Structures are given as structure tokens and as C-alpha cells.
Fold Putative pre-16S rRNA nuclease.
Amino acid sequence: MGRVLAIDYGTKRTGIAVTDALRIIATPLDTVATPELLNFLKAYLQKETVDEFVVGMPKTLKNEDSAIAPLVRKFVEELKKTFPDKPVHLADERFTSSIAMRAMIDGGMKKKDRQEKGNVDKISATIILQSFLDAVR
């Protein structure tokens, strides 16, 4: 069984999280400059077995697509073309950034480290992935 990889897509940076091989727990992997995202994924999939992707879909409080949603949908299409044999799941990512910030505070992360936006992106991707894992169990 391969891993599940989650993507918290952003216009500048993208957070990435991945499961262990048994798909028990989600862990932060990296934050990548968005223009380099597909190249990063190609390189990662050459080293690790990934069976499927989960991409966070930004929604408003009214459950409508947010302003960045069309960019995410475009990326999802590119992802499907690049990895046609891998299923891509969309996951609601509302509140993941605020939950990630709360988790960093509760976990005792220093203020300086919390201000690094890449950390929020990685942890947001981890929250998206863990929520997905919990939902499919």
C-alpha cells in the first residue's frame, strides 16, 4: 500500500503532507514554491510510492468557491494529467490555517517559528490529510 499525499495549494507557497506507508498518520513533509510544485512531486514520486492525492479546496463560509478556487481547480487538472494513474480527492480546507496556528501555539512552537508562513502551510496540509484519513476509515 502506498502513501497518500496532501497538498495545501497557495499562490506563492504550497504545503505538503504525507502519510506513513500504512496510512495511519499524516505528517508535514515540506513547503514548496508553487511554480516548482509539479517538479517536486515528480521527484518525490520517483523515491516514494504514493497511491493518491488529496488537495485542499478553499471554500467560503457559505460553502462557495473562494477567490483562489479556480487556480486550485486548474492545478488539479495539471496534477491529473501529470499523474493519470493516481486518484485526486478534493477536501474542504476551511479553517485549516487557523487550526494550524492553534496547533502550533498549543504545541509550544516559538513565536518566531509560527511567523514563518511555510510552517502554517505544512501543518495545514497535515490537517487536511488527517481529516481525509479519518473520514475514509
About this structure: Residues 52 and 58 are 19 Å apart (CA to CA). DSSP finds five helices and five strands in the chain.
